[in-house]
């Protein structure tokens, strides 16, 4: 993963729009800095130079200075107009995806991202895209407002429930880039972190092939362990016995757990399956009913693999 | 002379009753200042805890939920109990009538009542901490605030009440 935590300034831009965004940002930053220095500098200089000279000093009666007033009205107005049109052009570019874009459906929910690809494949918290091709993201949320933010690409777009939002990017360089949720969305908002994996043409073709045959030839426990991270179970469930947003999976299989309504249930295959598909049905005491359903995100083979993985955690 | 029997700064009472029932704009201004500075300290302490948690990338001082409640309360207290009332209510009460050369504000009883409404609203906001501190951020934005289990209602009711004290 690209290390963007160690930089004080902007991380290097990795999309075609990034240089344009940075140019405008730098223009505003440096113009603002220069005028700050000029205005504050002159202010301090005048305060010292024209300070009261003595007890009987009289303040001169200065009404106005037309030339100065025109100057300090026209210059800032021009600057603001320039920044507006410059910014508006970039804004339009960022909001109109090219016609031939590779389209991915993005779904945000508490607290992970899922991606549906044109070939029917899907993934969680890892968006895999081809390098040097425009990628259009059609986004919506299953619960509250999230925001899709890739600092390296200079794109950020809110992801809302009950409607689509769209953004796009073209990342020329293969690599892995951080993806953050930048709209506060609850307990594990800070862990709603993903990756954008940009692959070269050949690697991307290979990945598209393999994404439809995931889990083939793997032991169910091993595939389940892979899904545990790949499908973001790890965000809320630990496997070392410590509490998180949800219960730890270690050693729960075969035991009896207390539920929030005071009753008890045995943790067997059917309970696990139900908890994945209808998480609110039986919530373990001491935890909040916050897990989203995985209906449509995990197929039955993947649920089998996860159940097998949980059984193996003793 | 009549003025010898009226109250002034030399002979005015100083007990707690003289403060809580005062109609003097300067005293009310000082009462506002005291209440507002109290909440400024509370909001500031919450900010300090947030910063302590962020000292390291894997801060373990507070849990994720507590952290969310901390920055929400910090924001709500600083916005509704500090920034909004600070200048108009305290300095406005204390200084403005003097600058205008007025004896007092136009409605001194209403002025005092405003302070009590401010305190009443603040108590509601504080009650929401006990009742399950809000974790929505100070904007209480939907749909998150309609789904969280915390006491959004008592906090927003407190903010609603605060809207009525409209500083004189």
Write the layout of secondary structure elements.
The complex is a heterodimer of chains A (314) and B (168).
Chain A lengths: L17 H32 L16 H30 L6 E8 L2 E5 L5 E3 L1 E5 L3 E8 L4 E5 L4 E5 L5 E6 L4 E7 L11 E7 L1 H11 L8 H11 L25 E3 L5 E3 L2 H9 L22 H13 L2
Parallel strand pairs in A: 1-5, 4-10
Antiparallel strand pairs in A: 1-2, 2-3, 5-8, 6-7, 6-9, 9-10, 11-12
Helix pairs in contact in A: 1-2, 4-6
Chain B lengths: L15 H5 L4 H29 L10 H37 L7 H23 L13 H4 L4 H11 L6
Describe the 3D structure.
The complex is a heterodimer of chains A (314) and B (168). Chain A has helices spanning 18-49, 66-95, 201-211, 220-230, 269-277, 300-312; strands at residues 102-109, 112-116, 122-124, 126-130, 134-141, 146-150, 155-159, 165-170, 175-181, 193-199, 256-258, 264-266. In chain A, the strands form three sheets. In chain A, strands 3-2-1-5-8 form a five-stranded mixed β-sheet, with no helix packed on it. Chain A has 314 residues and is of the alpha+beta class. In chain A, strand 2 and strand 3 (122-124) form a beta hairpin. The model of chain A has no long low-confidence stretch (mean pLDDT 89). By secondary structure, chain B is mainly alpha-helical. The A-B interface holds A 5, 143-145, 161, 184-191, 245, 288 and B 57, 64-65, 68, 135, 137, 141, 143-144, 147-149.
Give a summary of the structure in a few sentences.
The complex is a heterodimer of chains A (314) and B (168). Chain A is α+β, with helices and mostly antiparallel strands and 314 residues long.
Rg over C-alpha atoms of chain B, rounded to the nearest angstrom? 20 Å
Mean pLDDT of chain A: 89
Radius of gyration from the alpha-carbon trace of chain A, in angstroms = 28 Å
Biggest sheet of chain A, in brief? 5 strands, mixed
Runs of chain A in which pLDDT lies below 50 for 5 or more consecutive residues are none
End-to-end C-alpha gap of chain B: 32 Å
| Helix-strand string of chain B | HHHHHH
Count of alpha and pi helical runs of chain A: 6
Strand content of chain A: 15-25%
Structural class of chain A: alpha+beta
Total number of beta strands of chain B: 0
Oligomer type:
heterodimer
| Number of H- or I-type helical stretches of chain B | 6
Q: Biggest interface: chains and residue counts?
A: A-B, 15 and 12 residues
Helix content of chain A: 25-40%
Terminal CA distance of chain A reads 32 Å
Number of strands of chain A: 12
The averaged pLDDT of chain B comes out at 86
What characteristic shape of chain B results from the CA principal axes?
A: elongated
């Amino acid at each position: 993963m690209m290390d963007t935590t160690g930089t004080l300034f902007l991380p290097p831009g990795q999309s075609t729009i990034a240089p344009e965004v940075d140019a405008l940002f730098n223009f505003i930053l440096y113009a603002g800095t220069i005028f700050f220095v000029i205005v504050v500098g002159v202010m301090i200089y005048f305060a010292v130079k024209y300070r009261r000279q003595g007890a009987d000093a009289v303040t001169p009666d200065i009404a106005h200075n037309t030339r100065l007033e025109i100057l300090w009205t026209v210059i800032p107005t021009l600057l603001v107009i320039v920044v507006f049109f410059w910014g508006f052009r970039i804004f339009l570019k960022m909001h109109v995806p090219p016609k031939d874009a590779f389209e991915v459906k993005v779904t945000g929910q508490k607290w992970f991202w899922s991606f549906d690809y044109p070939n029917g494949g899907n993934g969680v918290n890892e968006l895999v895209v081809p390098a040097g091709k425009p990628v259009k993201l059609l986004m919506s949320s299953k619960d509250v407002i999230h925001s899709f933010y890739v600092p390296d690409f200079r794109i950020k777009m809110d992801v809302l429930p009950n409607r689509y939002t769209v953004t796009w990017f073209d990342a020329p360089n293969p690599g892995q880039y951080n993806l953050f949720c930048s709209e506060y969305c609850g307990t594990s908002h800070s862990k709603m972190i993903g990756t954008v994996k940009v692959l070269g043409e050949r690697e991307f073709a290979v990945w598209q092939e393999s994404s439809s045959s995931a889990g083939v030839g793997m032991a169910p426990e091993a595939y389940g362990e892979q899904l545990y991270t790949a499908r973001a179970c790890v965000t809320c469930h630990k496997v070392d016995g410590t509490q998180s947003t949800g219960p730890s999976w270690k050693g729960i299989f075969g035991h009896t757990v207390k539920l929030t309504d005071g009753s008890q249930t045995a943790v067997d295959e059917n309970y696990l399956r139900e908890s994945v598909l209808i998480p609110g049905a039986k919530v373990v005491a001491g935890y909040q009913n916050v897990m989203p359903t995985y209906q449509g995100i995990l197929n039955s083979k993947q649920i089998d693999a996860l159940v097998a993985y949980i059984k193996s955690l003793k | 002379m009549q003025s010898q029997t009226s109250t002034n700064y030399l002979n005015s009472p100083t007990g707690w009753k003289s403060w809580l029932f005062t109609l003097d704009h300067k005293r009310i201004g000082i009462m506002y200042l005291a209440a507002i500075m109290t909440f400024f300290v509370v909001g500031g302490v919450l900010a300090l805890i947030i910063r302590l948690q962020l000292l390291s990338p894997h801060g373990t001082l507070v849990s994720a939920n507590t952290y969310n409640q901390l920055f929400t309360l910090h924001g709500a207290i600083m916005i509704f109990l500090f920034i909004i009332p600070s200048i108009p209510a305290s300095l406005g009460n204390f200084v403005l009538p003097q600058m205008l050369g007025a004896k007092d504000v136009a409605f001194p009883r209403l002025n005092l009542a405003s302070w009590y409404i401010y305190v009443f609203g603040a108590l509601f906001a504080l009650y929401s901490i006990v009742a399950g501190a809000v974790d929505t951020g100070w904007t209480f934005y939907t749909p998150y605030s309609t789904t969280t289990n915390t006491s959004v209602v008592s906090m927003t009711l407190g903010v609603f009440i605060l809207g009525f004290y409209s500083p004189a």
